[in-house]
């Protein structure tokens, strides 16, 4: 079934979007020209690089990125130790006004961060809203550099501080208020609840996960190395998607608040997964840095095709459909047991990976017989490891 051009229209609270793809705050939204370029390519919205008061000193280090790449050089995980926008407030208010004039139908969200003083947050929020921003996103979640100054994730890890700053901005502006949450907490719910209690209309989850990408074993320098030294940074890209999905679903199960899913979205399938666990839209940063803002075309096409194929009228119809299937471990069935099967023996190259994995990490149920794998049904406990390590798709795990 061909996808209707209207299929992707969606809403996040009172914000209406042409499609659920929003550029996240970061290098792809560091300037007005980059945001215009993204809007020309078809992004439904954009969140500016985080704007700070002119009094807040922002000096970046270099290099400030490190990447964990797969064997085919595809990106697995990405670390950054970048700070916030280096452009002053007057530059941003001018850009916001100009972009909204050129692209009135796209959603432009201003990300802000100020010192712990609520008055600074209020002033900044009022300035970007007066310039024409459709919504304000509070960055209480940057995990590097800023926490050392008592802001960013240092605020976002404490529910009472999140509530206080959200409440201060809520009093100052009428537009929808987004609070962007840090994943660097043990339990997301107290912080999410505090943001909502403070007046947040929308939650965005997640900002980056605090990390240390690695050590250069020749020099023993941490990565990225800034003149031989390193620090803890923010982890993003495909590797953090499972953390983002967990957090978005945990919020969606408990709170009736619209959510923007962020973290590791690089294909339309990732967006569909976030929506299925309760997100109303997704934000994307690292995938755009890696492959360019043009990826939105394929993501729009792919998501529209998927929705049409499933007979869903739009992203809103997919929202939360997977949630009833996510519950406690205790509630999982112990009756339906699964077993390994060699379902496509003709593809088997007898590489032995399933045998080794099952012997050293499973129940020792697989052996190589007459140039084919043999499964001891009595020993197999259906853990699923063999299907995951098999490079040819021979091994599968089926119920019963
Ligand atoms: C280099 C870089 C800079 C970022 N800068 C900001 C920022 O200024 N404000 C903010 O709220 N998030 C910032 N982020 C976090 C992203 O908006 C996003 O939450 C995170 O990277 C996870 O999404 P992703 O996997 O699509 O990148 C930055 C991320 C990266 C990689």
From TrEMBL:
Transmembrane segments: none annotated. The keyword Oxidoreductase applies. Keywords: Oxidoreductase. Pathway: Pyrimidine metabolism; UMP biosynthesis via de novo pathway; orotate from (S)-dihydroorotate (NAD(+) route): step 1/1. It catalyses: (S)-dihydroorotate + NAD(+) = orotate + NADH + H(+). GO terms for biological process: thymine catabolic process; uracil catabolic process. GO terms for cellular component: cytoplasm. It is an enzyme of class 1 (oxidoreductase). One of its GO terms (molecular function) is dihydroorotate dehydrogenase (NAD+) activity. InterPro entries: 4Fe4S_Fe-S-bd, 4Fe4S_Fe_S_CS, Aldolase_TIM, Dihydroorotate_DH_cat. Gene3D superfamilies: 3.30.70.20, Aldolase class I (3.20.20.70). The keyword Oxidoreductase applies. Residues 338-368, 371-400 form the 4Fe-4S ferredoxin-type domain. Its EC number is 1.3.1.14. Belongs to the dihydropyrimidine dehydrogenase family. Catalyzes the conversion of dihydroorotate to orotate with NAD(+) as electron acceptor. NCBIfam families: PRK08318.1 (NF006183). PANTHER family: DIHYDROPYRIMIDINE DEHYDROGENASE [NADP(+)]. Heterotetramer of 2 PyrK and 2 PyrD type B subunits. This is Dihydroorotate dehydrogenase B (NAD(+)), catalytic subunit. It comes from Methanofollis liminatans DSM 4140.
């Amino acid at each position: 079934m061909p996808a209707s051009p209207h299929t992707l229209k969606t809403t996040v609270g009172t914000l209406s979007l042409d499609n659920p793809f929003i550029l996240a705050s970061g290098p792809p939204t560091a300037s007005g020209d980059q945001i215009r370029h993204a809007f020309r390519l078809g992004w439904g919205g954009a969140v500016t690089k985080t704007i700070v008061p002119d009094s807040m000193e922002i000096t970046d280090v270099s290099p400030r990125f490190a990447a964990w790449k797969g064997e085919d050089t595809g990106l697995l995980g990405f670390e950054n130790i970048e700070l916030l926008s280096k452009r002053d407030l007057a530059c941003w208010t001018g850009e916001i006004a100009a972009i909204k004039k050129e692209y009135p139908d796209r959603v432009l969200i201003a990300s802000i961060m100020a010192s712990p003083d609520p008055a600074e947050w209020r002033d900044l929020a009022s300035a970007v809203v007066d310039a024409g921003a459709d919504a304000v996103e509070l960055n209480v979640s940057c995990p590097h550099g800023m926490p050392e100054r008592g802001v960013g994730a240092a605020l976002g890890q404490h529910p009472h501080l999140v509530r206080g700053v959200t409440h201060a901005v809520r009093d100052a502006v009428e537009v929808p208020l987004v609070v962007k949450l840090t994943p660097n907490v043990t339990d997301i719910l107290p912080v999410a609840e505090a943001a909502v209690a403070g007046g947040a209309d929308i939650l965005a989850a997640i900002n980056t996960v605090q990390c240390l990408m690695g050590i250069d074993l020749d020099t023993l320098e941490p990565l990225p190395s800034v003149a031989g030294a390193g620090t803890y940074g923010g982890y993003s890209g495909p590797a953090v998607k499972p953390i983002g999905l967990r957090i978005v679903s945990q919020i969606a199960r408990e709170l009736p608040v619209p959510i923007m899913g962020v973290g590791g979205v690089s294909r339309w399938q990732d967006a569909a997964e976030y929506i299925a666990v309760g997100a109303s839209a997704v934000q994307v940063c690292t995938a755009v840095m890696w492959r360019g803002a043009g990826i939105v075309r394929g993501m729009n096409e792919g998501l529209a095709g998927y929705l049409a194929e499933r007979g869903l009228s739009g992203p809103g119809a997919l929202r939360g459909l997977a949630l009833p299937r996510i519950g406690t471990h205790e509630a999982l069935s112990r009756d339906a047991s699964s077993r390994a099967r060699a379902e496509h023996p003709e593809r088997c190259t007898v590489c032995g990976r399933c045998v080794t994995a099952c012997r050293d990490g499973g129940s020792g149920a697989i052996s190589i017989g007459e140039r084919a794998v043999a499964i001891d049904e009595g020993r197999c406990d259906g853990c699923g490891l063999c299907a995951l390590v098999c490079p040819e798709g021979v091994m599968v795990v089926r119920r019963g």
